[in-house]
Amino acid sequence: MWRNADVLDFVGWLRNYNEHRHSQRVGFYGLDLYSLHASMRAVLDFLDKVDPEAARRARYRYACFENFGEDTQAYGYAASFGLSKSCENEVVSQWVEMRQRAADLARRDGHVAPDAFFFAEQNARLVKNAEEYYRSMFHERTSSWNLRDSHMAEILDALTHHLGAKSKIVVWAHNSHLGDARATEMGQKGELNLGQLVRERYDKEAILVGFTTYTGTVTAASGWDSAAERKHVRPALPGSYEALFHETDIQNFLLTLDRKEKVASVLREPRLERAIGVIYLPRSERASHYFHAQLPDQFDAILHFDETRAVEPLERTAAWETGEVPETYPSML
Model-level pTM? Predict the structure, then answer.
């Protein structure tokens, strides 16, 4: 998701930008919780430098995951069905210790990089939340989704507090995380998301921006943990927001959705909206990727790109270079 040419260019630009500024530098932070093992290592690395005894306690607690190696889903399956002991107590204990000793550990981080304790603390939080997330994955989908987005909101709140009230933060995530879930079919089923939580907590200080496209190419997989492929995006279904925007004959545009304006009232009637994420399944597109939404209540603004281009992975495989096989293969008609 991140190892692509666009992120590489952005990081290079950001480094150059920051090198020429002595204050108000821009940071690049992660919010999601798919880095369970990397986060455990980050906590241990920090504690090894500032408090070896605390590091030994943390290492003992995190050893609970050792039987599963890096396979977090295997842990979640075994723990959720009682096939193995849960590591919940261990990760919560480690998180509580980090919180209780915050002032002491923060004072000690003068020997390491600035903000090191903040990063370690958030990684300990991630381990706690990710452990619960992986246990919830094999039960109701809504609960695991809500845990994940609630975690991102927690991290965002902590980051806002850490950087100060005057700081500005841009969150880059999928539409399904950033549009207000209450204006979508998923919200009606009980799902919440980061966009909804941000609106509830920050009100008009937050602006939710969505992206839409009609056709083009996308880098996505055919299954979870499968290889990335360069796939053709089918033209949007009739009756969808994407099809409506295509009918304007304007290739790319920004549309603001002030709820008091006429355009918002026209677009408020529920329509289909497409969501293409890590996985894209063109053959089951209606069932797999479309849902009903009320766009003006979901976002404050929309950026529409009528034809989109797939991001380029840093490690290009032959399958990605070739692109997906046409649906008419082998006849090619």
Answer: 0.89
